[in-house]
User: Which sequence fits this backbone?
């Protein structure tokens, strides 16, 4: 189960600001930063135009950096419903960009990301930024917050991926056992 | 302000069933049906795969029928949040398909559609289906409900479009007046 070299694209989704990052898994728990940035769309533009810009930017990033997998924040009921709906529109086009390129998508809640990266599911922004800066060996803390969140999502997936791979291997082994045992009946 | 011949694509969005329709505006309030159908995606498929299928189906419909405009149901807080989020993902990829083809998108609430089509914002499914069947001169009522809703959205836009066009002309005239008057100062 060697995941060394796996490239992960982290996405902190939003219509006004969408954080994007790419990292690469190194040896053991080492993670190497590749790229980080924020796509912005003007709030006075048409919704269709904003979705088109996000779709194109995410598509360009995927074509440039060729990630093996995408890690994106899982949406849940917080803030106003209209904000959640707008963010969900953006998530739809971002997931579509991944699907069109055959890239699998994993979802993580903010507390899963905090727990994975800092060991504390309730870590604050400052603690998270400090951890991400140290883990990735960055010269200075990533800015703005959306960029730091996108990096944290990608690091979270790098560290969760071995567990996911092991669980799915166990799942596959279980299925095989069932098949063999039913063949004996 | 002649909108005769305008083709409208109506969309009743959903991840499991997405109603699609195309109608064409005729003389006065006449509306001619062109196509109606439902795109289904299996609930046990990956979310990315489902969004990809919806995106491709909507894209194929748009390329086949070349609508001038899209009318889609406006989402609002009803049902469970997770259903709204899933539907909003679908709406995101549907709006993107329109944006990629330069097709403007208009949103209508269910009560706006009911009011426009039947004169009653609280009309029930049966009344709406009966009105749509009569307006479009269909041999039998459209099925399933998602298909009928998609037709109702398209008819709603056909009848609202002249008002929208008039309002935007008045808006433009207002701007011109302001410009002229400020040029005189």
Assistant:
């Amino acid at each position: 189960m060697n995941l060394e070299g796996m490239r992960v694209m982290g996405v902190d989704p939003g219509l006004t600001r969408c954080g994007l990052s790419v990292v690469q898994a190194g040896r053991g728990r080492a993670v190497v930063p590749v790229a980080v940035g924020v796509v912005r769309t003007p709030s006075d533009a048409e919704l269709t135009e904003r979705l088109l810009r996000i779709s194109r930017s995410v598509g360009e990033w995927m074509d440039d950096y060729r990630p093996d997998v995408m890690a994106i924040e899982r949406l849940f009921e917080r803030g106003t419903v209209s904000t959640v709906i707008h963010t969900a529109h953006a998530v739809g086009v971002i997931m579509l960009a991944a699907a069109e390129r055959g890239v699998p998508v994993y979802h993580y809640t903010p507390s899963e990301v905090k727990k994975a990266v800092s060991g504390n599911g309730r870590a604050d922004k400052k603690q998270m930024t400090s951890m991400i800066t140290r883990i990735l060996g960055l010269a200075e803390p990533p800015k703005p917050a959306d960029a730091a969140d996108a990096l944290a999502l990608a690091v979270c997936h790098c560290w969760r991926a071995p567990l996911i791979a092991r669980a799915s291997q166990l799942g596959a082994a279980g299925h095989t056992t069932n098949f063999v045992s039913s063949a004996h009946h």
In short: Residues 174-185 of chain A have pLDDT under 50 and may be disordered. Chain A touches chain B at residues 47-49, 51-52, 55, 75-77, 81, 84-85, 88-93, 95-96, 98-100, 104-105 (CB under 8 Å). The longest helix of chain A spans residues 145-184. The CA atoms of residues 132 and 152 of chain A lie 6 Å apart.
